[in-house]
Amino acid sequence: MTARGLLGCDVPLAERYDLALVDLDGVAYRGHHPIDGASEGLAGARAAGMRLVFVTNNASREPEAVAEQLTGLDIPTRPDEVMTAAQAAAELLATRVPAGERVLVVGGAGLHTAVAAKGYRIVASADDEPVAVVQGYAADVGWAQLAEAAYAVQRGAWHVASNLDLSLPTARGFAPGNGALVGAVRAATGVEPSSAGKPSPTMYRLAVARAGASRPLVVGDRLDTDLAGARAGDMPGLHVLTGVSTARDAVLAAPGERPHYVAADLRALLTPHPEPVVDGGWWVCRGAAARVVDAVLQVDGLPDDPVDLVRAACAAAWDAADSGAGPDPASVPELLR
């Protein structure tokens, strides 16, 4: 297996790692609805001694509101177990801007609270001469706020984005995310913003420091944010197949977005994880096997756990890709969702 490959774990993940950095949308819940296995998996992880911090690119909500929602979904959570992109953006802001300076905030209550807590004077107009613009998602952000942000950035204000997610999962489908709104300001100004949210590992490192953990595990559904952030922060990452990125996406993942573990849902925290091995030219994971021949991915077997087929396919595809031998994306089936 290459250095970018899947890991094996002969004990439940909750016993190997002391902290789970858990994404929210697509992992613990979807919109206002729970995800199967989330409550069971997280409760079992806590019982095994694993601590939890919920790390989200959503900057619009207060940690208290997030904790209340999780608790209502049978995932008891304290506000200090929530790390938002708003908090990370305020921390990033503090690396260059002294407390007391004017900052134009475009976003929801969570972002306003986090910026104010760092001692900044919040303004709403470019005419107030802010030294920075901090932008996060909120459902009521419109043209007027985006225009003020653009005016301020054109005049030299530092543009800080809470995250650059282009889409936002909701109960009805995928809506424009903060990245799409930030893109409007970028298009108007030509200025590339700094970002505090995933895939930057800033939030993960802040959460690990807050918890005092030494063996963190990132848990997410998006390869381009959650798992890319894990790779960027040199932390192992678990990809759960309950949200945006599919099993096929994992098989075709670029090196910087590859997970270290793949599983159906959060109940995977309570189980060991097999590591694919080479056997006779095939990558084998228990009852599943995969290989790449002439840039075509081939899969075989009827495993008891269908995720084993995904694991074998990831191992075969990544090994082939790293050696320049494919696979052709057209040969990669959906496998499972």
Automatic annotation (TrEMBL):
<dbReference type="GO" id="GO:0016787">
    <property type="term" value="F:hydrolase activity"/>
</dbReference>
<dbReference type="Pfam" id="PF18407">
    <property type="entry name" value="GNAT_like"/>
</dbReference>
<dbReference type="InterPro" id="IPR023214">
    <property type="entry name" value="HAD_sf"/>
</dbReference>
<keyword id="KW-0378">Hydrolase</keyword>
<dbReference type="InterPro" id="IPR036412">
    <property type="entry name" value="HAD-like_sf"/>
</dbReference>
<dbReference type="InterPro" id="IPR041065">
    <property type="entry name" value="GNAT-like"/>
</dbReference>
<feature type="domain" description="GCN5-related N-acetyltransferase-like">
    <location>
        <begin position="285"/>
        <end position="326"/>
    </location>
</feature>
<dbReference type="Pfam" id="PF13344">
    <property type="entry name" value="Hydrolase_6"/>
</dbReference>
<dbReference type="InterPro" id="IPR006357">
    <property type="entry name" value="HAD-SF_hydro_IIA"/>
</dbReference>
<protein>
    <submittedName>
        <fullName>HAD-IIA family hydrolase</fullName>
    </submittedName>
</protein>
<dbReference type="Pfam" id="PF13242">
    <property type="entry name" value="Hydrolase_like"/>
</dbReference>
